[in-house]
Design goal:
Layout: E1 4-8, H1 12-16, H2 25-31, E2 36-40, H3 49-61, E3 65-69, H4 81-101, E4 105-108, H5 118-138, E5 145-148, H6 160-167, E6 176-178, H7 179-185, H8 193-207, H9 209-213, E7 216-219, E8 222-225, E9 228-232, H10 238-241, H11 246-254, E10 260-263, H12 269-283
Parallel strand pairs: 1-2, 1-10, 2-3, 3-4, 4-5, 6-7, 7-10
Antiparallel strand pairs: 8-9
Keywords: Endonuclease, Hydrolase, Nuclease
Protein name: Endonuclease IV
GO biological process, one term: base-excision repair
């Protein structure tokens, strides 16, 4: 079983030790026993080609799997033509960077609120997404996985069902399952192994066994309100907010899954990712 664990961006301890550049992250993670790194383009795609290629070389040197988080500004459901153009650009730019880095996956938020009619809004999202997939194919970028992420707020596009439907639109489209988000949007429903199993079964029924086996996972402890996600915390606060990683760890081993698990804890991404790794080892 090849399960990869890693960090979304750089944790506080990376900077506290005097490091500054993302080029130092692959070696830093590998020294700690981690082997995945989600490079953050969430505030815009600013990295230049030479640095992206160098980061890719460092990642390969130290055995670290790369993924990219595309900008938060993506909005598939927008009705504004200029925002549609920008959304296309954010996704295509992220894929170009992934090509330079040799990153396997680009994660993105579907974006936008549901408006007055969620069904109509989602139909708009699918129309724009199909256009984007055509442009991706025209540029020869369809070998990079594109992963819409399950979102954590009720008044936000990106439910599990919506994400899986987006995935049905193209072979390169796979889900990024954020279990902290799913727990927040369902008001703390993820408690038992069965709760997690139901989600994995839904994904398998719609997208097949291989997609579940190689799932791209985000996991963190998230405080929530009636509206859903409020704030990311660390594993120290897991008893306060959840969800608990242990039932998922057990399922990963039982089902012989080989996911990439990216920790999005608030400042302790690497430290908490190592705890996730130890929890999975416990069930092997």
């Amino acid at each position: 079983m090849t399960i990869k664990f890693g960090s979304a961006g750089a944790p506080d301890s990376f900077y506290a030790q005097g490091h500054k550049s993302s080029l130092q992250m692959p070696e830093w993670l590998a020294q700690r026993g981690l082997d995945a790194y989600e490079y953050q383009c969430s505030r815009g795609v600013k990295i230049k080609e030479p640095m992206a290629r160098e980061l890719g070389e460092k990642a390969r040197q130290f055995g670290v799997a790369l993924s990219i988080h595309a900008p938060y500004y993506i909005n598939l459901s927008t009705e504004e033509s200029d925002k549609k153009i920008k959304t296309k650009g954010y996704i295509l730019d992220s894929l170009r960077v992934a090509r330079w880095m040799e990153a396997k996956t680009v994660v993105f938020h579907p974006g936008g609120g549901p408006g007055t009619n969620r069904g109509e809004t989602f139909n708009r999202s699918k129309i724009l997404f199909r256009e984007i997939l055509q442009e991706i194919a025209a540029e020869g970028l369809q070998d990079i996985l594109l992963a819409p992420e399950t979102m954590g707020k009720i008044n936000q596009m990106g439910s599990l069902e919506e994400v899986l439907e987006l995935c049905s639109l193209g072979e390169q489209v796979v889900p990024c399952i954020d279990f902290g988000h799913l727990n927040a949007v369902s008001q703390g429903s993820l408690k038992t192994k069965d709760d997690y199993a139901k989600i994995l079964d839904i994904i398998e029924n719609q997208l097949g066994k291989e997609v579940v086996k190689h799932l791209h996972v985000h996991f963190s402890i998230i405080e929530f309100t009636k509206a859903g996600e409020k704030k990311h915390w660390t594993l120290r606060e897991s008893h306060l907010y959840g969800p608990d990683f242990a039932p998922l760890a057990e399922l990963i081993v039982e089902r012989q899954m080989e996911p990439v698990i990216i920790c999005e804890s608030a400042g302790t991404q690497a430290e908490d990712a190592l705890i996730f790794k130890s929890m999975v080892k416990k069930y092997k």
